[in-house]
Amino acid sequence: MLRLTSRILSKGVVNIQRVAAMSSSSQTYDFEHLSVSFPNTFVMHVEFNRADKLNSMNVKMWAEMSDCFKKAGEDEDVRAIVLSGKGRMFTCGLDLMEAAQQLPRKDDVDVARHAFYLHKFIGIAQDSCTSIDKCLKPVISAVHGPCIGGGVDVIAATDIRFCTEDAFYSVKEVDVGLAADLGSLQRLSRIIGSDSLVRDLCYTGRRLQADEAKSCGLVSKVFADKDAMLESSLELANEIASKSPVAVQSIKLNLNYSRDHSVDEGLQFMRSWNASMLQSEDLMKSAQALLMKKKPKDVKFSKL
Q1: What's residue 8's pLDDT?
Q2: In angstroms, how far is the first alpha carbon of the chain from the final one?
């Protein structure tokens, strides 16, 4: 009976691995409002691709973002992601022209039913940012020019934030009569660490210029121009992608868990997590490389 059970379980694991491999190899990233490329092994570059509309965000773009980052999270050929925008800016935020057609309630529509509709509408928009936060592959946002409204929600969900000297950030929703609802109000104070500054930015919608963004900790590096920023962003993505995927994805998972829980809860979760991960082949490969005085990038890690 034990042998039979063992054979069944073994076949089940093989089948799961085959399905996972097929899923990864068949991943496609063909979108209308996003441009996806793979500049290096295990590195994905996602670009907002509505330059003619200043990369303004609509329902289709939000849905594509969710689809893209959820796929990337499951794709064993992706280990690090750079997110930027095509054209003259990162994004101008919400596509107000489309929103004006989709949001108002028609006279013949019940208030409660329209509220349910808006609840779903907001959920689609929120998921575009949440999918970035939950994607276990580190995401580097590279912002040039204006990053307005929903753009701030997006970059607040990324792991690492770079920008150019001409970049600025604006939680602009207050100037169109609403509160930001995709994550800025929930995430910014955890990133910046100054509740006063976050409230200042959100109550006024004023511009946070690149130098102030760096001094308050919203971004970690500021570059002279977009080309220099993208070059550095991709270099960093390459370095992250060269590390053990088990280690990197475990780090992101535990950083996010600890952000949302107490220190003690985070430590307890880490204990349970590493009880398994300490048995990874990646640990032995990395240790052997250090003993042989090899560089981490010389170690070849299996896909995850």
Answers
A1: 45
A2: 32
